Amino acid sequence: MTNLHHLAARAVRQALEVRRTVATAESLTAGMVSAVLADTPGASGMLQGGVVAYQNSVKESVLNVGSDLLSRAGSVDSDVAREMAEGVRTLLRADVGISTTGVAGPNGHDGKPVGTVFVGVATAGGSFSFEYAFDGSRAEIRGLACGAALERLLEALSS
User: Fold this and answer.
1) Is the dihedral of CA 121, 144, 29, 72 positive or negative?
2) Which of 67, 70, 111, 154 has the fewest CB atoms within 10 Å of its CB?
3) What pLDDT, on the 0 to 100 scale, is given for residue 141?
């Protein structure tokens, strides 16, 4: 069992125990977080669904991320991650929204270097974002971002 699958299994188990539903909004991970959760037996009892919002137009029109924020900060930003998590939580009527946005490479994006990642978390108690600086190949950065999102999901489900 990979580390990602181990984290996902813990998150699914925890969500079922505390009777919380989860929705994902993913940019750089492009569905990886929801896919690894769905690989886990029992996921149908907690995973509402997910939105792959690779383009800013999708972040804005589907997830309700502010267009002024996107034009000012770009897509790789802590507030964008937070608004993505809030947006998917509302859209899919979940208890917890989790989001990822960042730069997997090979080139920087929106003035941010490769490896910059933000994970957003939204619950009834509010929304937060967490910044990471990962090293590695494009695939490694995406995997690390997925792992970070699962860890933040576990924290949200445990509080």
Assistant:
1) positive
2) 111
3) 98
Q: How many CB atoms neighbour CB 159 within 10 A?
A: 8
Q: Say how far apart CA 21 and CA 44 lie, in whole Å.
A: 10
Report whether 137 contacts 101 (CB < 8 A). no
What residue type is assigned to position 24 of the chain? T
Homologous superfamily in CATH for domain 3-158: CinA-like (3.90.950.20)
Cβ neighbours of residue 141 under 8 Å, at least 6 residues apart? 28, 102, 103, 104, 105, 114, 115, 117, 134, 135
Write out residues in the chain with pLDDT < 70, as ranges: 1
Find the helix or strand (DSSP H, E) in which 74 lies: none
Q: Answer yes or no: are the C-beta atoms of 102 and 74 closer than 8 Å.
A: no
**Per residue in 118-140, pLDDT tens?**
999 999 999 999 999 999 999 99
pLDDT of amino acid 119: 98
